[in-house]
Design brief:
By secondary structure, the chain is α+β, with helices and mostly antiparallel strands. The protein has 6 helices and 16 strands. The strands form 4 sheets. Strands 5, 6, 7, 8, 9 and 15 form a 6-stranded antiparallel β-sheet that branches. Strands 13-14-10-12-11-16 form a 6-stranded mixed β-sheet. The chain has a two-stranded antiparallel ribbon with strand order 1-2. A hairpin with a 5-residue loop joins β11 and β12. The chain starts with a strand and ends in a 21-residue tail after the last helix.
Length: 299
């Protein structure tokens, strides 16, 4: 029998709790739900709040079928918030907004990665954060991503912007910057300019174009996730990898000290201790007072 759990007054059916989702560690679905409920909910919800969410679903674990969905899944409860999302060439659609623990646990029960845009539901295509996805092409690793992140941090600081880092939960690194609300096209243009500059100044290390043939041994500085239609793995989401890795905030000291890819592999079981030690390292992203304007493109 599928157990029924009450979360904040909502009745939820939580299924297959003994199912092993991560064979490499033996992590079960029940343990995944516990991670979200007991460890991540307080911080994850802050980064999900008021942002339309896209799901990468992996109901049979990372070795099973993976599929990406933006529309509310069949059977979405009526009490789960939906928000209209405009599209340039079609009618607006609806996407789920996860804004409370009950909605989070309903979504987690589907076995998903959480992905969100850089803008909020009430102001589509007006970003309040900037993102760089640093993606290494083998044999480059996150170690090289850290070198690029340090370079970007300095350039951003020159423009009055403060960058914060998190692991992608896969093999790379994300840099996030709180900004004053700005049209997504302008944010994308600024980010592209920095990516092009990085390739020019660090040609042995950086590529700003997506072509696979250009990327072996280099770090792809992906600025495209600033486009209004794109999303990025939400902080603290689990990823569909061999182990229950987390897209986890990291300190600049950890980025500076990274010498091996394993230095920045963070799993669900690591998060409680890190939150006790650091709190939410990405909390400034949720504070409108922390946002700073992008430099004038004419200067």
């Amino acid at each position: 029998m599928t157990p029924i759990t009450e979360v904040e007054g909502r009745r939820l059916s939580l299924s297959n709790l003994d199912k092993v989702l991560y064979p490499a560690t033996g992590t079960t679905k029940g343990e995944v739900l516990h991670y979200y409920a007991a460890t991540a909910s307080g911080v994850l919800l802050a980064h999900l709040r008021d942002r339309p969410v896209s799901f990468l679903r992996y109901p049979d674990g990372p070795e099973g079928q993976l599929f990406f969905t933006k529309n509310p899944p069949p059977g979405t409860p009526s009490w789960v918030r939906r928000a209209p999302v405009p599209h340039r060439e079609s009618e607006p659609s609806e996407q789920v907004v996860v804004e409370d623990l009950a909605s989070l646990m309903w979504a987690a029960n589907l076995v998903v990665e959480f992905h969100t845009p850089q803008w909020r539901a009430g102001t589509p295509a007006v970003a309040d954060r900037l993102v760089f996805d640093l993606d290494p092409g083998a044999p480059a690793t996150v170690v090289e991503c850290c070198r690029v992140a340090l370079w970007l941090r300095e350039r951003l600081a020159e423009d009055g912007l403060t960058a914060y880092g998190k692991t992608s939960g896969s093999k790379g690194l994300h840099l996030l910057v709180p900004i004053t609300p700005t049209d997504s096209a302008a944010v994308s243009a600024y980010a592209k300019g920095l990516a092009v500059r990085a390739e020019k100044e660090l040609p042995e290390l950086v590529v700003h174009r997506m072509r696979r043939a250009l990327r072996p041994g280099k770090v792809f500085v992906d600025f495209s996730q600033n486009a209004a239609a794109k999303t990025t793995a939400t902080p603290y989401t689990l990823r569909a990898r061999a182990e229950p890795s987390v897209s986890a905030p990291v300190t600049w000291a950890e980025i500076e000290g990274c010498r091996s890819p394993g230095d920045l592999v963070l799993l669900a079981g690591d998060m409680a201790g890190r939150l006790d030690r650091y709190g939410d390292l990405l909390a400034p992203l949720c504070d409108p007072e922390e946002g700073r304007p992008l430099p004038d493109p004419q200067t």
